[in-house]
């Protein structure tokens, strides 16, 4: 029976450390501020934003939620971003996806000032990531690395298979793992014989957005399984991409859903807001 890796526990410890850092910033009259933009009324986006807002408030971070109608044009959204770029009080900007079909997310992401690009999606941020330089990083990938470090799971010389190649999980996580000398394979919807590949993994990370897709046949005994998915099954229950009970019987360690990577992603996002605010305080001496 696999050991359950609690992301909630890691997030709680990170929150305690963040409160101290935020307290020091407030002594310098610097209040870390995150602005999140939602276009439309996607329920998952609104729920995630509510979780951000609640956690930010508990920590002492100023949270601005900007909601725009589904009919918002790309030019109108760009204007909002430019105003936030110029607002000296706003440390970080998050563009919540999905966006309406008429808006190109690639165009939008490149308009966020790199220093305020809290999700690490600008061309400059991506370049810094792959060059091994410091900068803003995609926070779900950061959350996964924090979980591995907390539980002292070394990735050096390990074969890590990532199922999913998104710009917020699969690709940036591969870069972070390579920094720590892991051997990384990225699988996706065009990968043949997926199960034969995933069974080779020492560590399996799943981020494909398909409820209970990974079953026991995809996992070899002793594997460490990180489930990034958040879905609702036919009964409305929140589940991951991994069939938890099946895989728990085979794996060595596994993250739950909920209570795994989700809460740690929110906390990693807010930690990055604090880091950006600390840079602001250092540069301006405020």
From TrEMBL:
NADP(+) binds at residues 164-166, 230. One of its GO terms (biological process) is L-histidine biosynthetic process. GO terms for molecular function: methenyltetrahydrofolate cyclohydrolase activity; methylenetetrahydrofolate dehydrogenase (NADP+) activity. Its EC number is 1.5.1.5, 3.5.4.9. Pfam families: THF_DHG_CYH (PF00763), THF_DHG_CYH_C (PF02882). It comes from the Bacteria. GO terms for cellular component: cytosol. Pathway: One-carbon metabolism; tetrahydrofolate interconversion. It catalyses: (6R)-5,10-methylene-5,6,7,8-tetrahydrofolate + NADP(+) = (6R)-5,10-methenyltetrahydrofolate + NADPH; (6R)-5,10-methenyltetrahydrofolate + H2O = (6R)-10-formyltetrahydrofolate + H(+). Keywords: Amino-acid biosynthesis, Histidine biosynthesis, Hydrolase, Methionine biosynthesis, Multifunctional enzyme, NADP, One-carbon metabolism, Oxidoreductase, Purine biosynthesis. SUPFAM superfamilies: Aminoacid dehydrogenase-like, N-terminal domain, NAD(P)-binding Rossmann-fold domains. Residues 138-280 form the Tetrahydrofolate dehydrogenase/cyclohydrolase NAD(P)-binding domain. Belongs to the tetrahydrofolate dehydrogenase/cyclohydrolase family. Catalyzes the oxidation of 5,10-methylenetetrahydrofolate to 5,10-methenyltetrahydrofolate and then the hydrolysis of 5,10-methenyltetrahydrofolate to 10-formyltetrahydrofolate. HAMAP family: THF_DHG_CYH. Homodimer. This is Bifunctional protein FolD. It comes from Bombilactobacillus bombi. The lineage of its organism: Bacteria, Bacillati, Bacillota, Bacilli, Lactobacillales.
């Amino acid at each position: 029976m696999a050991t359950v890796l609690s992301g909630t526990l890691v997030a709680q410890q990170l929150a305690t450390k963040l409160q101290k850092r935020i307290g020091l910033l407030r002594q310098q009259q610097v209040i870390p501020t995150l602005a999140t933009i939602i276009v439309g009324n996607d329920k998952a986006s609104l729920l995630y934003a509510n979780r951000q807002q609640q956690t930010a408030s508990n920590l002492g971070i100023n949270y601005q939620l900007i909601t725009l109608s589904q009919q918002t044009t790309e030019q109108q959204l760009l204007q909002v971003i430019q105003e936030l770029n110029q607002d000296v009080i706003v440390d970080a900007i998050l563009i919540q996806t999905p966006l309406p079909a008429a808006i190109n997310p690639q165009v939008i992401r490149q308009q966020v000032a790199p220093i305020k690009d809290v999700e690490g999606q600008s061309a400059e941020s991506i370049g810094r990531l792959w060059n091994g330089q410091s900068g803003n990083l995609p926070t779900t990938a950061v959350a996964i690395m924090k979980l591995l470090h907390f539980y002292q799971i070394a990735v050096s010389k390990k074969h890590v298979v990532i199922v999913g190649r998104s710009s917020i999980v699969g690709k940036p996580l591969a870069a972070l793992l390579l920094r720590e000398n892991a051997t990384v394979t990225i699988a996706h919807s065009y990968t043949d014989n997926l199960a034969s590949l995933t069974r080779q993994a020492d560590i399996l990370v799943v981020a494909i957005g398909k409820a209970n897709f990974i079953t026991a046949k995809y996992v070899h005994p002793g594997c460490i399984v990180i489930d990034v998915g958040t879905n609702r099954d036919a009964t409305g229950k929140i589940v991951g991409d991994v069939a938890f009970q099946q895989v728990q019987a085979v794996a060595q360690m596994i993250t739950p859903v909920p209570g795994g990577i989700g809460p740690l992603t929110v906390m990693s996002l807010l930690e990055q807001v604090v880091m950006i605010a600390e840079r602001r305080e250092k540069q301006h001496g405020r």
